[in-house]
Amino acid sequence: MVKHAQCCDEQCVHTELVNKVLDELPDEDALYDLAELFKVFGDSTRVRILFALLESELCVCDLSEALDMTQSAISHQLQILRTNKLVKSRREGKQIYYSLADEHVVTIIAQGLNHILE
């Protein structure tokens, strides 16, 4: 049996509350960008990479070894993470090291993990 959300017994719009919500609602472009950001977290490989980078800055070779994946697969996922500003890179000689872009990414990961572990 499918459980449905309960509805109001009587139609009564609380205009003041609705207007407050509408005033605070981000514009459509911002909401679209936020939805796209959360899509990036919808892939467990990318989440594994982010968790690895939470521990330490790593190169593709390190990530490949740690996650038992090909360097090509890691590079592909890192490109998606870079495009979405979740990771950054720096070159040292012939190596490129990746790390989380900023503390916001750390917070997103930590809050997400806390939420699912509740």
Account of the protein in words:
A 3-stranded antiparallel beta sheet has the order 1-3-2. The chain has 118 residues and is mainly α. The protein has helices spanning 15-24, 28-40, 44-55, 60-67, 71-83, 103-117, and strands at 58-59, 87-92, 95-100. It is 60% helix and 12% strand. It is elongated. The chain is built from 6 helices and 3 strands; from the N terminus they run H-H-H-E-H-H-E-E-H. The two termini are 26 Å apart. The longest helix has 15 residues, at 103-117.
Outline:
This protein has 118 residues and is mainly alpha-helical. It is 60% helix and 12% strand. α4 (60-67) crosses α5.
Secondary-structure map with pairings?
Blueprint: H1 15-24, H2 28-40, H3 44-55, E1 58-59, H4 60-67, H5 71-83, E2 87-92, E3 95-100, H6 103-117
Antiparallel strand pairs: 1-3, 2-3
Helix pairs in contact: 4-5
